[in-house]
User: What shape does this take?
Amino acid sequence: MVKVVGKWVKRRSPRLMPDESAPTEPQAPGRTAPRELVILVVLGLAVIVAFSAAFVRVQTDRGIRLWMLNHGPDQLVVVNPDTGEVEKELLVADGLQQVVFNHSKDTAFVANVVDISNRVTLIDTRSYLKSEQIIVDGVPQGLAVFPDNEHLAVITGSKTDFMAGGFDVLDLTQQSAADPQRKRAVYRERNLVLTAFIAVDEYGENIYCLDAKASHVFIFNMDERKLVRTVDIGAAPMGLLYPDWGDYFFVSSIKDKAITVLRKARDPQDVEIAGKVKYGRFRHMALSRDGRLLYAPVYELREIAVIDVEALEVVKTFKMDEGCSLIAVSPMGDDIYAVGFSTGKVYVMDAESGVLKRAITTHGEFRDIKVILESDKPPLKAGSAR
Assistant: This one.
C-alpha cells in the first residue's frame, strides 16, 4: 500500500509479459520441492504396501501339508504348498507305492512294492518318526484304513511276479497266534486276478476293489466275508477314487477314455452307475470338498479336466505344458496341486481359474500324493519326541 494525497491505495503487482517469469527463491542444492516430495512419499508407501501384501499372502501358512512318495530316490517328501517350502525328506523303504492316513490323522501307512521283507511302515504324522512296521503276506500294493482305525486292508502281491490275487484285512490291535510278529488276519480274499485299487466305505462294512483284468467294481462285505456285488463299468479300470465325502465314487478308464460316476450306498445292492464322462485317457482324480467338482488330468492333452459331478460333463479345462502325473485339492477348495509329469515340480493353481500361483521345485518320480491339515492332527502326548 502507498499513500497518495492523503489516501492509501493498493499498489498493483507488475504485470508479467509472456516472455517473463516470476522470480523464484533459489533451491538449496539437493533439496526437493514440497509437492514433489509428497508425491514421492505417496508412491513409495504404495509400493511398500503392495509388496507387503503380496509377501504376506504368499507366506501365509494355513497348515496344509502335502505328503508325496518319491520313487527316485525312494523317500517321503512333505511340502508346505502355501509357502513353497519342502519341510521333510524321509527315507522309509524301497519302492514306495502308496500312502494313506488313518481317520484320526495321527498315523500314516506307507506301502512299497520291492521291499524283500514285505512290510507296511507306520509313521507318526506329528513327529515324523516311524512308530511300527507290519509284516504282510505278500508285496503290499494298496492300502485302506477302516473308520475304526483298528483294521487295515492290504492288497498283497506275489513275491515273484507281483500279481495280486486279492487282499488281507488285518486287525491292528491283535497279533497273530501262529506268528506273534504279525498282525492277525481277520479276512483273506484270493479270488481276483490283478487287484489294482482298494477302498473301504464310510461304515467299515464293505470293501471296494478293482481288478485290472476285469471291467468290474468288486464289492466284498466284511460281515459275510465274501463277494456280494459286482458292477460292470464296461472297460478295464485304471483308477479308483472313493472319497470320505460326497455322494459318489469314481472309476477311471484309459481304454474307453471315460470316468464312471457311481452313487454310494450302504447296501451294495443299491450301488448304481449315475453316468459316464467321456473325454480323454483319465488316470488320477481328485474331488473338491463340497463334492461338486472332479479334477482329472489327461496327460496326452496336457490339461486338467474339471468335471461337474451332477451334470456329468467337463465344464472347463486347465492347460499344463508338461502334463500332470498326480493331483490333489486343498481342504479349503481354493487350490489344486498338480505334480508335473517330467520335472516333478508341484504346481499350485487356482481351483476356479487354473491360474498358476506358484511352482515348488521338487525332483523325482512321484507315485502318490495326499493332503493333510495340521489342525486335524491330535496333539502329541506329553514326553513324545518331535
